[in-house]
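Dear colleague,

Following up on Tuesday's group meeting, I ran the structure prediction for the two-component complex that the binding team flagged. I've pasted the input sequences exactly as they went in, so you can double-check that nothing got truncated or mislabelled along the way. The structure tokens for the whole assembly follow below. Feel free to forward this to whoever is handling the docking comparison.

Inputs:
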Amino acid sequence: MKLLARLIVRDLSLMAGRPGEWLMPLLFFLLVAILLPFAIGPDAALLARLAPGILWLGALLASLMPVATLFATDAADGTLDQLMARGVATETLATSRVLALWVGFGGPLLVAAPLAAMLLNFEMGRLLLLLPGLIAGALGLSALAVLAASVTLGARGGGGLVALLVVPLAIPMLLFGSRPDEAGSLGLAVSAALMLAAVAPFAAGAALRASRS
Amino acid sequence: MAAPDLHAFANPLRFQRLAVALTPWLLVLGIGFLAVGIGIGLFVAPPDYLQGEVVRILYIHVPAAWFALGGYLGMALAALAALVWKHPLAALSVRAIAPVGAMFAAICLITGSIWGRPTWGTWWVWDGRLTSMLVLFLLYLGVMALIHLHDDKAKGLKMAGLLAIVGTVNLPIIKYSVEWWNTLHQPASIRVSGSSIHPDMLTPLMLSAVGFLLLFAGLVFIRMRTLIAEQRVEVRALRRAARTG
């Protein structure tokens, strides 16, 4: 537990030094909300209707951005091998990355969501219904990002492929998460996210081991 | 314990012998069952009282959907076996199954779309079953792409296997999508407790399903043999290169 906490702190302080992992996704998320009115026109009612889906879509696409650097530098400078040689389970490394990304990616997203909602004329009352799903979704998306980063670690030019790996698995969350007004959909979105968060660290851990062999 | 029996077939040479003997049978019987099933379905089975003649596409659509799903489950189980028991052929069969399953998923999507145009009045609708079948197709593509992304083939196979295993969370969603959303796609008519399809239609459907299953197995065997042969060619080329130095 103590080890996990220290790894999370390490991952978070590394993230703080890499704006590509937290600032770029945040800006990308806002950019989606800013561009939508240009694409479909400034019809306030229509924007409000599209807002939940757009917020989710922005979060999903933004979560693809940190994938490329998540493990690549640790693998390149030998940190990953050092930690593994010390007997740290790769599953622990993957779990700490998921949780750190949840804070480092989900946190800024949470701050940006009210701003994006305002831009899209989305009422704050309905945003409060959407946010719990988005918070859980950020955990699920972080888990998928870590999974995608670990299975493509050491591969050449995996950048374009990451979307193909992440998107199919993220669709259940997107589907239920973006319908905050429908009864029961929040529960399904949260359970889809928790399922991914539970499974992904084990798969990512195995993939990290395989990539160092 | 089943483990020793499993490993008896882990020997590529023994598997090769078995596959060589079985493949023609699987293909001939598969095509035979498929021809009879689809023949009865097209010319003998009655048209649907509601859908008319269009219903006949179901003799291809439904089995393709079944084995696209079943194939994915098989691929994930093979990936698990490769991971847990380091079964060499299991890892190879992940690579052998993926394109065949993807093809079945594509057949299911295309025939469903052709059927949907006259029946529902649209080529595509974002209904739960259709969407999750598309997701299954994308998962197959992801697995196939990941295998070739890594220079080290064994590594690529392992990574793709892990992705395939995680992807199984999608299978229950496909199965229950029809009950959860209940939009356009009809719920299952064939259940363990019995079928609501008339025997005149059920018989060709089952014959065609057996045909699809045998063809699936036959195609996977052919691909397995190709992949084993590829490996041996590589090993031989390496050995020759080492000898001539």
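The radius of gyration of chain A is 17 Å.

Cheers,
M.
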